[in-house]
Amino acid sequence: MRKPDGKIVLLGDMNVGKTSLLQRYMERRFPDTVSTVGGAFYLKQWRSFNISIWDTAGREQFHGLGSLYCRGAAAIILTYDVNHPQSLFELEDRFLGLTETANNDCLFAIVGNKVDLTSERDTEGGEKEGQASGKVGGCVSTKVPKQVQPEDAVALYKKILKYKMLDEREMPAAEQMCFETSAKTGYNVDLLFETLFDLVVPMITRQRAEESDQTVDIASCKTPKQTRSGCCA
Ligand SMILES: Nc1nc2c(ncn2[C@@H]2O[C@H](COP(=O)(O)OP(=O)(O)OP(=O)(O)O)[C@@H](O)[C@H]2O)c(=O)[nH]1
Ligand SMILES: [Mg+2]
Protein backbone atom coordinates (compact mmCIF):
# COMPACT_ATOMS: atom_id res chain seq x y z
CA MET A 1 0.00 0.00 0.00
CA ARG A 2 1.30 3.44 -0.94
CA LYS A 3 2.02 5.74 1.97
CA PRO A 4 -0.71 8.40 2.29
CA ASP A 5 0.28 11.81 0.94
CA GLY A 6 -1.76 13.71 3.50
CA LYS A 7 -3.72 13.14 6.66
CA ILE A 8 -7.01 14.51 7.94
CA VAL A 9 -8.22 13.76 11.48
CA LEU A 10 -11.70 13.92 12.99
CA LEU A 11 -11.77 14.99 16.64
CA GLY A 12 -14.64 15.71 19.00
CA ASP A 13 -16.67 14.51 21.93
CA MET A 14 -18.31 11.10 21.96
CA ASN A 15 -21.62 10.82 20.19
CA VAL A 16 -21.26 13.96 18.05
CA GLY A 17 -21.25 11.84 14.88
CA LYS A 18 -17.62 11.58 13.72
CA THR A 19 -17.91 7.96 12.61
CA SER A 20 -21.27 8.63 10.99
CA LEU A 21 -19.88 11.57 8.99
CA LEU A 22 -17.00 9.49 7.71
CA GLN A 23 -19.23 6.55 6.82
CA ARG A 24 -21.69 8.84 5.10
CA TYR A 25 -18.90 10.25 2.96
CA MET A 26 -16.97 7.06 2.23
CA GLU A 27 -19.76 4.52 2.09
CA ARG A 28 -22.70 6.77 1.17
CA ARG A 29 -24.85 5.44 3.99
CA PHE A 30 -25.89 6.08 7.58
CA PRO A 31 -25.50 2.78 9.42
CA ASP A 32 -25.89 2.16 13.12
CA THR A 33 -22.61 2.88 14.82
CA VAL A 34 -20.93 1.74 17.97
CA SER A 35 -18.80 4.09 20.01
CA THR A 36 -15.31 4.08 18.51
CA VAL A 37 -12.49 2.35 20.32
CA GLY A 38 -9.07 3.83 19.60
CA GLY A 39 -9.14 4.98 15.99
CA ALA A 40 -9.52 3.82 12.41
CA PHE A 41 -8.87 5.31 9.02
CA TYR A 42 -10.11 5.34 5.45
CA LEU A 43 -7.99 6.07 2.41
CA LYS A 44 -9.42 8.42 -0.17
CA GLN A 45 -7.89 8.99 -3.56
CA TRP A 46 -8.29 12.63 -4.51
CA ARG A 47 -6.84 13.52 -7.90
CA SER A 48 -3.47 11.79 -7.89
CA PHE A 49 -3.15 12.00 -4.11
CA ASN A 50 -3.84 9.48 -1.39
CA ILE A 51 -5.41 11.05 1.68
CA SER A 52 -5.98 9.21 4.93
CA ILE A 53 -8.97 10.28 7.02
CA TRP A 54 -8.75 9.25 10.64
CA ASP A 55 -11.74 8.64 12.87
CA THR A 56 -10.94 8.90 16.58
CA ALA A 57 -12.71 7.97 19.80
CA GLY A 58 -14.40 10.79 21.67
CA ARG A 59 -14.63 8.85 24.89
CA GLU A 60 -12.55 10.27 27.71
CA GLN A 61 -10.75 6.98 28.33
CA PHE A 62 -9.11 7.17 24.87
CA HIS A 63 -8.19 10.80 25.19
CA GLY A 64 -4.47 10.13 25.44
CA LEU A 65 -4.43 8.65 21.95
CA GLY A 66 -5.72 11.82 20.31
CA SER A 67 -2.36 13.56 19.95
CA LEU A 68 -0.90 10.39 18.48
CA TYR A 69 -3.51 10.38 15.74
CA CYS A 70 -2.97 14.09 15.05
CA ARG A 71 0.73 13.66 14.36
CA GLY A 72 1.56 15.12 10.97
CA ALA A 73 -2.05 16.04 10.20
CA ALA A 74 -2.63 18.49 7.36
CA ALA A 75 -6.18 19.22 8.51
CA ILE A 76 -8.27 18.57 11.60
CA ILE A 77 -12.05 18.43 11.68
CA LEU A 78 -13.27 19.58 15.09
CA THR A 79 -16.76 18.16 15.38
CA TYR A 80 -19.57 19.16 17.74
CA ASP A 81 -23.30 18.47 18.00
CA VAL A 82 -25.41 21.55 17.24
CA ASN A 83 -27.84 20.41 19.93
CA HIS A 84 -25.25 20.15 22.69
CA PRO A 85 -23.36 23.33 23.55
CA GLN A 86 -21.07 21.37 25.85
CA SER A 87 -19.69 19.51 22.82
CA LEU A 88 -18.50 22.83 21.37
CA PHE A 89 -16.87 23.87 24.67
CA GLU A 90 -15.14 20.50 24.83
CA LEU A 91 -13.42 21.23 21.51
CA GLU A 92 -11.58 24.10 23.09
CA ASP A 93 -11.12 22.58 26.54
CA ARG A 94 -10.23 19.02 25.71
CA PHE A 95 -9.42 18.56 22.03
CA LEU A 96 -7.51 21.62 20.87
CA GLY A 97 -4.56 20.66 23.06
CA LEU A 98 -4.26 17.38 21.17
CA THR A 99 -3.47 19.15 17.92
CA GLU A 100 0.04 20.26 18.91
CA THR A 101 1.46 17.30 17.01
CA ALA A 102 -0.21 18.31 13.74
CA ASN A 103 1.69 20.12 10.97
CA ASN A 104 2.52 23.76 11.68
CA ASP A 105 0.30 24.90 8.83
CA CYS A 106 -2.50 22.49 9.74
CA LEU A 107 -5.98 23.61 8.68
CA PHE A 108 -8.94 23.54 11.03
CA ALA A 109 -12.58 22.97 10.15
CA ILE A 110 -15.31 23.39 12.77
CA VAL A 111 -18.27 21.13 12.10
CA GLY A 112 -21.67 21.27 13.78
CA ASN A 113 -23.33 17.94 13.07
CA LYS A 114 -26.92 16.61 13.52
CA VAL A 115 -28.42 19.73 12.04
CA ASP A 116 -31.29 17.58 10.75
CA LEU A 117 -32.63 17.43 14.30
CA THR A 118 -33.14 21.16 14.28
CA SER A 119 -34.95 21.37 10.97
CA GLU A 120 -37.59 19.36 9.17
CA ARG A 121 -37.01 20.41 5.63
CA ASP A 122 -33.90 22.26 4.62
CA THR A 123 -31.31 19.70 5.47
CA GLU A 124 -32.88 16.69 3.82
CA GLY A 125 -31.38 14.80 0.91
CA GLY A 126 -28.58 17.27 1.06
CA GLU A 127 -25.82 15.49 -0.81
CA LYS A 128 -26.34 17.86 -3.69
CA GLU A 129 -29.07 20.25 -2.72
CA GLY A 130 -28.50 23.40 -0.77
CA GLN A 131 -24.89 22.70 -0.03
CA ALA A 132 -23.86 26.30 -0.22
CA SER A 133 -26.71 27.50 1.97
CA GLY A 134 -25.73 25.17 4.77
CA LYS A 135 -22.45 26.98 5.27
CA VAL A 136 -22.29 29.43 8.07
CA GLY A 137 -23.98 32.62 7.06
CA GLY A 138 -26.39 30.68 4.81
CA CYS A 139 -30.04 30.67 5.70
CA VAL A 140 -31.39 27.46 7.13
CA SER A 141 -34.82 27.85 8.62
CA THR A 142 -35.11 25.80 11.79
CA LYS A 143 -38.25 24.69 13.58
CA VAL A 144 -36.46 23.66 16.72
CA PRO A 145 -33.99 26.34 17.72
CA LYS A 146 -30.42 25.25 17.47
CA GLN A 147 -28.54 25.13 20.76
CA VAL A 148 -25.29 26.24 19.17
CA GLN A 149 -25.29 29.11 16.74
CA PRO A 150 -22.97 29.28 13.72
CA GLU A 151 -21.46 32.47 15.14
CA ASP A 152 -20.18 30.45 18.10
CA ALA A 153 -18.31 28.15 15.71
CA VAL A 154 -16.87 31.14 13.84
CA ALA A 155 -15.70 32.62 17.15
CA LEU A 156 -14.00 29.34 18.03
CA TYR A 157 -12.31 29.21 14.63
CA LYS A 158 -10.87 32.69 15.11
CA LYS A 159 -9.77 31.83 18.61
CA ILE A 160 -7.94 28.76 17.33
CA LEU A 161 -6.04 30.80 14.75
CA LYS A 162 -4.95 33.17 17.51
CA TYR A 163 -4.01 30.32 19.82
CA LYS A 164 -1.96 28.72 17.04
CA MET A 165 -0.47 32.11 16.15
CA LEU A 166 -1.65 31.71 12.57
CA ASP A 167 -2.19 34.81 10.49
CA GLU A 168 -5.90 35.16 9.77
CA ARG A 169 -5.10 36.72 6.37
CA GLU A 170 -3.13 33.67 5.28
CA MET A 171 -5.64 31.08 6.44
CA PRO A 172 -8.98 30.17 4.84
CA ALA A 173 -11.81 32.40 6.06
CA ALA A 174 -14.01 31.24 8.92
CA GLU A 175 -17.02 31.20 6.58
CA GLN A 176 -15.23 28.63 4.43
CA MET A 177 -14.13 26.46 7.34
CA CYS A 178 -17.22 26.32 9.57
CA PHE A 179 -19.91 23.88 8.45
CA GLU A 180 -23.21 22.56 9.62
CA THR A 181 -23.77 18.98 8.56
CA SER A 182 -26.05 16.02 8.88
CA ALA A 183 -24.52 12.59 8.59
CA LYS A 184 -28.06 11.28 8.60
CA THR A 185 -29.26 13.09 5.47
CA GLY A 186 -25.84 13.73 3.92
CA TYR A 187 -26.33 17.47 4.15
CA ASN A 188 -23.03 19.27 3.46
CA VAL A 189 -20.99 16.14 4.05
CA ASP A 190 -19.40 16.06 0.57
CA LEU A 191 -18.83 19.78 0.78
CA LEU A 192 -16.96 19.40 4.06
CA PHE A 193 -14.57 16.68 2.97
CA GLU A 194 -14.01 17.93 -0.55
CA THR A 195 -13.34 21.50 0.56
CA LEU A 196 -10.63 20.09 2.79
CA PHE A 197 -9.16 17.87 0.07
CA ASP A 198 -8.93 20.85 -2.26
CA LEU A 199 -7.13 22.85 0.40
CA VAL A 200 -4.83 20.05 1.48
CA VAL A 201 -3.64 19.08 -2.02
CA PRO A 202 -1.74 22.35 -2.69
CA MET A 203 -0.16 22.00 0.75
CA ILE A 204 1.11 18.55 -0.16
CA THR A 205 2.43 19.82 -3.50
CA ARG A 206 4.18 22.73 -1.81
CA GLN A 207 5.68 20.48 0.83
CA ARG A 208 7.00 18.12 -1.83
CA ALA A 209 8.55 20.97 -3.76
CA GLU A 210 10.27 22.19 -0.60
CA GLU A 211 11.52 18.71 0.16
CA SER A 212 12.94 18.25 -3.33
CA ASP A 213 14.66 21.64 -3.09
CA GLN A 214 16.43 20.40 -0.01
CA THR A 215 17.47 17.12 -1.58
CA VAL A 216 21.11 17.02 -2.57
CA ASP A 217 21.64 15.48 -5.99
CA ILE A 218 24.75 13.43 -5.37
CA ALA A 219 25.27 12.63 -9.05
CA SER A 220 25.54 16.28 -9.94
CA CYS A 221 27.98 17.05 -7.18
CA LYS A 222 31.50 17.35 -8.68
CA THR A 223 34.16 15.56 -6.78
CA PRO A 224 36.93 17.97 -5.95
CA LYS A 225 40.05 17.50 -8.06
CA GLN A 226 42.65 15.53 -6.30
CA THR A 227 45.60 17.70 -5.53
CA ARG A 228 49.05 16.52 -5.05
CA SER A 229 49.81 18.92 -2.34
CA GLY A 230 50.83 17.81 1.07
CA CYS A 231 53.69 15.94 2.44
CA CYS A 232 52.57 12.48 1.29
CA ALA A 233 52.13 13.26 -2.41
N1 LIG B 1 -30.06 12.62 13.82
C1 LIG B 1 -28.77 12.44 13.62
N2 LIG B 1 -28.11 11.49 14.33
C2 LIG B 1 -26.80 11.32 14.10
C3 LIG B 1 -26.08 12.09 13.15
N3 LIG B 1 -24.80 11.69 13.17
C4 LIG B 1 -24.71 10.72 14.06
N4 LIG B 1 -25.91 10.48 14.63
C5 LIG B 1 -26.21 9.49 15.67
O1 LIG B 1 -25.46 9.84 16.83
C6 LIG B 1 -24.97 8.66 17.48
C7 LIG B 1 -23.45 8.74 17.61
O2 LIG B 1 -22.88 8.74 16.32
P1 LIG B 1 -21.36 8.30 16.07
O3 LIG B 1 -21.04 8.59 14.66
O4 LIG B 1 -21.12 6.92 16.55
O5 LIG B 1 -20.60 9.31 17.06
P2 LIG B 1 -19.03 9.45 17.34
O6 LIG B 1 -18.71 10.89 17.37
O7 LIG B 1 -18.28 8.64 16.36
O8 LIG B 1 -18.89 8.88 18.79
P3 LIG B 1 -17.57 8.18 19.47
O9 LIG B 1 -17.08 7.13 18.53
O10 LIG B 1 -18.06 7.60 20.77
O11 LIG B 1 -16.58 9.25 19.70
C8 LIG B 1 -25.45 7.48 16.65
O12 LIG B 1 -26.63 7.00 17.22
C9 LIG B 1 -25.73 8.08 15.29
O13 LIG B 1 -26.72 7.38 14.56
C10 LIG B 1 -26.82 13.08 12.42
O14 LIG B 1 -26.31 13.81 11.57
N5 LIG B 1 -28.15 13.21 12.70
MG1 LIG C 1 -17.08 7.02 16.53
TrEMBL record:
It comes from the Eukaryota. Its cofactor is Mg(2+). One of its GO terms (biological process) is protein transport. Its EC number is 3.6.5.2. GO terms for molecular function: G protein activity; GTP binding; metal ion binding. GO terms for cellular component: Golgi apparatus; phagocytic vesicle membrane. It catalyses: GTP + H2O = GDP + phosphate + H(+). PROSITE patterns: RAB. It is an enzyme of class 3 (hydrolase). InterPro entries: P-loop_NTPase (IPR027417), Rab20 (IPR041836), Small_GTP-bd (IPR005225), Small_GTPase (IPR001806). It holds the Pfam family Ras. Keywords: Cytoplasmic vesicle, Golgi apparatus, GTP-binding, Hydrolase, Lipoprotein, Magnesium, Membrane, Metal-binding, Nucleotide-binding, Prenylation, Protein transport, Transport. The keyword Cell membrane does not apply. It is found in: Cytoplasmic vesicle, Phagosome membrane; Golgi apparatus. It is a lipid-anchor. Belongs to the small GTPase superfamily. Rab family. This is Ras-related protein Rab-20.
